[in-house]
Prior knowledge:
- There is one protein chain.
- By secondary structure, the protein is an alpha/beta fold.
- 33% of the residues lie in helices and 21% in strands.
- The protein contains six helices and seven strands.
- It has a seven-stranded mixed sheet with strand order 1-3-4-2-5-6-7, with helices on both faces.
- 37% of the residues are buried.
Amino acid sequence: MNSINKLLRSAEYLTSAAEFSQCPEDAGLEVAFAGRSNAGKSSALNTLTEQGKLAKTSKTPGRTQLINFFQMDEQRRLVDLPGYGFAKVPEAVKLRWQRALQAYLEERRSLKGLIVLVDVRHPLKEFDLQMIEWSIDHSLPCHILLTKADKLKRGPAKSRLLDVRRQFESEPELVSAQLFSSLKKQGIEEAYTVLGQWLEVKSPPQAAQ
């Protein structure tokens, strides 16, 4: 088992914040997961941590209504951000989410990278582009997980990946993308590599050949 895999498996729920002021102490390293409602965010978190119920999954879009923090050790956390898009909640609640999310993204010093989850079957939508462009503007690394890759044949899935990479080819240091499937466990090692870099987890030395 590699170091990042072991770290992720140790993740456990820490706290939830409805407002930015309720976030835990701003210290250490955090990676946040963001995506449209029903993009497979909770499933990806559960797959990467090898914990079936770490993040709540639901067929009802907009289930994640709080900023949820999961602690791995004293210095490292994963953050599940509110699903954006078509959640069926009152406008006042949406505005509250938006304010908390904006404050978190703009003011959280421990945030080291943003994972944006996008259903591979659909083009990047306005909210996805806003998140990615925000990352670029703030020089924050962003990694796009094209989820549910098992729903497409290999050719069309690869084509979608190339299209997304081409879209951000002018920002190779800040934006990367990959195919991912929670169901088929596809793309896990690639995602581990990104998370390991952002969370400053050293890989174990390779055995001599």
